[in-house]
Amino acid sequence: MTERLLFSLEFILVDFFSTYGIITIICLLLSTFIKNPILQKINNQSNRFISFTGIVYLIVFLLAIIIELNISNQESKNYLFNRMFGKYWFGFWLQPLLWFSMSQLLRIKSIQKRTLLKLIFSFFFIISIEKIVIIITSFHRDYLPSSWTMSAYYYSSNLFLELLIKLSIFLISVRIFMMITQKIDDWKIIKTNSQ
């Protein structure tokens, strides 16, 4: 059960948050050259979907913590509590709360219209704080240039195909989300009209 929750969390993290960041950058770049209402609709629906995904992410994250605390032995519980509330508690909570808060801030119309702010959000959706720390420490003077490999994080033989699949999955998920919310809205209208 914990493995499924963690897989769901990783799927949301990698395939929804990072893909949202990429789609936002693409939409912002294209909208500067092409004024098309379809781009605006994709952008708006992606914002709604990522806000919903942020709530799901937080729920799955908290469920994974609760389940891990329930099935762990005392030593593992103490270690997890120390990570969550110990000296470096911010390292445990910063990334999940950052993703959640950014996804919920995208509900606000004034934030949705600010291009620079959306670019900053996109950057933090694409590159996690953990990856930023790895990049910064790899440039530290104690490391030799021969160890400057980032292939474990960025190498893929079919990078274009992988990106295309992620974009397709995200857009299909946004479309399904849009259809479901449209049906719910239609149902609410019918319900209020019948009363």
What does this structure look like?
With 195 residues, this protein is mostly helical. The chain contains nine helices and no strands. It has helices at residues 2-33, 37-71, 74-85, 89-105, 109-113, 115-126, 129-138, 151-154, 159-194. Helix 1 (2-33) packs antiparallel against helix 6 and helix 3 packs across helix 4 (89-105). The radius of gyration is 20 Å and the shape is globular. The N and C termini lie far apart (43 Å). The model has no long low-confidence stretch (mean pLDDT 82).
SSE arrangement:
Blueprint: H1 2-33, H2 37-71, H3 74-85, H4 89-105, H5 109-113, H6 115-126, H7 129-138, H8 151-154, H9 159-194
Q: Given the C-alpha coordinates, what overall shape results? A: globular
**Radius of gyration based on Cα positions:** 20 Å
Provide the low-confidence segments as ranges: none
Strand content: under 5%
Encode the helix/strand succession as letters. Answer: HHHHHHHHH
Helix content: over 70%
What is the makeup of the main sheet? none
